[in-house]
From TrEMBL:
Ranges of compositional bias, category Polar residues: 30-39
Signal peptide bounds: 1-23
Name by which UniProt lists this protein: Lipoprotein
Spans annotated as Disordered: 30-78
The UniProt record lists the keyword Signal: yes
Organism of derivation: Anaerosacchariphilus polymeriproducens
Compositionally skewed regions (Basic and acidic residues) per UniProt: 40-78
Keyword flag Chaperone: no
Lineage top rank: taxon: Bacteria
Keywords assigned: Signal
């Protein structure tokens, strides 16, 4: 074979090698691009799914909060109050003439008592002493029937601007309690002029209004 032919053959082989290399590189680039696009699409799909799940979860939470904060109608409330009072009665014990009253967690029964002011132990004791005396002496009902008020509808007295029967008194000078009279729950409204003054009953019935 002549030198010229050998030279031409070498050039042809070199060109074929270069063409083959370019094709392989292009194929690899296409594969890399395909893999990259696939991963990108996967990430976008996962992100979209994550955002969708977050929105759904947020919507569920909003619905739950709305449901929890939505006021109960009277029928539902009466069921909750009945269940609470039944549990409270089971938690109340008497030993050696001393009555120990129990108190379930209102939140477990969906009962909102947040409107009621918080009185210290001494204030509550004085209020119950006045209420107990009124209950037994004026109404002829046993002291055991007297309990802390648990009805949110009566607690509206603290939000009502005119305060109903307690008109003219501040919230921290208004105390409400409840008692059972022949199976019917009634409420007692007590007031005082100041923290140093004694409590007095000004109303009893099924409402805080006349």
């Amino acid at each position: 074979m002549s030198i010229k032919k050998s030279f031409m053959l070498g050039i042809i082989c070199l060109l074929l090698f270069m063409i083959s290399g370019c094709a392989t590189q292009k194929e690899n680039n296409n594969k890399d691009a395909s893999v990259g696009n696939s991963l990108e699409n996967k990430r976008e799909t996962e992100n979209s799914q994550s955002i969708k799940e977050e929105k759904e979860q947020s919507g569920d939470n909003d619905t739950k909060v709305k449901k929890e904060t939505q006021p109960k109608d009277d029928k539902e409330l009466e069921k909750s109050l009945a269940a609470y009072r039944k549990k409270r009665e089971k938690m109340t014990t008497e030993k050696n003439g001393i009555i120990t009253a129990g108190a379930p967690d209102e939140e477990e029964y969906g009962i909102d008592t947040s409107a009621q002011p918080r009185f210290d132990t001494r204030e509550e004791r004085k209020a119950f002493e006045a209420a107990s005396e009124y209950l037994t002496d004026k109404l002829g009902i046993e002291e055991e029937a007297l309990n802390n008020c648990i009805d949110p509808r009566i607690f509206q007295i603290y939000k009502d601007k005119d305060k109903g029967v307690a008109k003219g008194y501040e919230n921290d000078n208004i105390f409400v309690c409840e008692y059972c009279d022949n199976g019917t729950w009634q409420y007692m409204i007590l007031v005082r002029d100041s923290k140093e003054d004694p409590w007095k009953v000004i109303h009893h019935g099924d409402s805080y209004k006349e």
